[in-house]
Amino acid sequence: MNVPRRWIRARVAAALLLPGIALAQEPPRAVAQASPAIVIHAGSVLAVPGQAPLGPQTIVIRDDRIVSVEAGLKPAENFGTGSRLIDLSDKFVLPGLIDLHVHLAIMMNADSSTVGSEAKLAMAAAGYANKLLQAGVTTVRDVGDNAGVTPALRDAFANGELAGPRVFVAGRIISRTGGHGAKKPGPGELPYSPAACDGTESCRRAVRENVEQGSDWIKVTVSGSGRESSGRADAAPILLPDEMTAVAEAAKQADRPIAAHAHSTAAINLALSAGARTIEHGTYFDDASVALFKRQHAFLVPTAFVADFVGSKLDMFAGGKDGRQSADLKAWADAAVAGPGRAWRAGIPLGLGTDGGPSFDTTSTAREIELYVASGVPAAEAIKAATSNGAAILGMGSELGQVKPGFLADLIAVDGNPVDDPARLRTVVFVMKQGIVHKSGPPISAARVRIER
Ligand SMILES: [Zn+2]
Questions:
Q1: What confidence score (pLDDT) does residue 448 get?
Q2: 103 CA to middle of ligand 1, Å?
Q3: Can you give the pTM of this predicted structure?
Q4: Least packed by Cβ within 10 Å: which of 80, 255, 266, 345?
């Protein structure tokens, strides 16, 4: 018998509107079941970073999202058949950390034997990203990868082909020819064509090529690095105003936000005036910068971790071509390490990033939070910078960075309260990203994995 499809649609619509009546008339058919719930018993929950933590809560997750957060520890059976309980009733649960300044595919002091090929670099980057996830960093923004391996990593993690954090990528670093991040490949670097921005046409082209290659963000360097004289407080920007404007216009047209690397005051203010969403490093902001941050709703990502690292290894980093001498470099490192607190006191909104990558261990994000606190940022606000502020910067403020119904289930747990002692974030004992558990329980010691013969 030929039944008109329109008629079937009408019956289905009726069934949805009047399920009791429709079921009596329709033959039995499969009803879509809600997926079984994951029920987390949490001892304490930092549901909204910046606010006081909650006491014991039951967090219910279906598929990749949080569906409810209820006070008290409710039996898992309350949430349907097949529900699975995860007992974190003696742990502190908070949103997964967001590191806005990483370089998954830049190896510091690498030589050709450690990099070798794009494939080898991609493996190192994937391995490091996986360790970051294990350390509780569920989202990263990669702000510069001239080798071009990060878009594939982002997609492999998003598709579940590999386990890793959620990744937003900037791709090639845009600067003027010879500028920071757009120099000719150095020793140990794979060959690449720098994203050179010299005059408006090439600046637009660099942005558009990056967008074509999959960039979610546009990374532009407007000053030299902290190690270079072009990164000094009073240095002129390394881009001309029309170059910065061309980058901003092409990025805006493609709906890509800008992360602008800038140390010198003039570079910071040029980037802010052009509409950068984040200033990276931002060591030498002044009062005019503070006003611009507020007017433009921009955020600072100070990267104290890398400055602290450079400051502890002056012999390795001082001098060289265009480099700053030891005392001068130390003054920069001190200013940069003090940056988060100075910005906080000035009322600049903060994100959090480390400038970390495969050359570092994966406690860097937690240590950045500790450095914020050491420089005068209240711990609750430092954790907020690393969670809900990061989410807002990424345009995901209604889905990430809080423990609330409707949000993606990115959750981590630690022993004790990290608002009282941020160093606890160095040892994350549970990691869930988008409803999938990536770590539960303490790390397995070598003794426990020894194979008995
Ligand atoms: Zn960087």
A1: 42
A2: 6
A3: 0.90
A4: 255
